[in-house]
Amino acid sequence: MEKDLVEFIAKSLVDDPDSVIVNMIEGEKSTIIELKVADDDIGKVIGKHGRIAKAVRTILSASANKTGKRFVLEILD
């Protein structure tokens, strides 16, 4: 569910939605969500001063409260 959410948000923000790749790495207490976008779109996903990335992380933490797991968003370049 969280993977789909991150993928949807990222595809909505970028110019090249076909290049969006989201991977999940499951851990015991936390899950790492890796987000990879085209080089030209990395700024759109991060935003000025990291505001968009912070907003996505906030949404993930709200989702994590329901499941009791912790989600970590990593934006790969």
From TrEMBL:
Its main location: cytoplasm. InterPro entries: KH_dom-like_a/b, KH_sf_prok-type, KhpA. It comes from Oceanispirochaeta crateris. GO terms for cellular component: cytoplasm. SUPFAM superfamilies: Prokaryotic type KH domain (KH-domain type II). Coiled coil: none annotated. Belongs to the KhpA RNA-binding protein family. It is found in: Cytoplasm. GO terms for biological process: cell wall organization; peptidoglycan biosynthetic process; regulation of cell shape. Signal peptide: none annotated. This is RNA-binding protein KhpA. A probable RNA chaperone. Forms a complex with KhpB which binds to cellular RNA and controls its expression. Plays a role in peptidoglycan (PG) homeostasis and cell length regulation. Transmembrane segments: none annotated. One of its GO terms (molecular function) is RNA binding. Keywords: Cell shape, Cell wall biogenesis/degradation, Chaperone, Cytoplasm, RNA-binding. Forms a complex with KhpB.
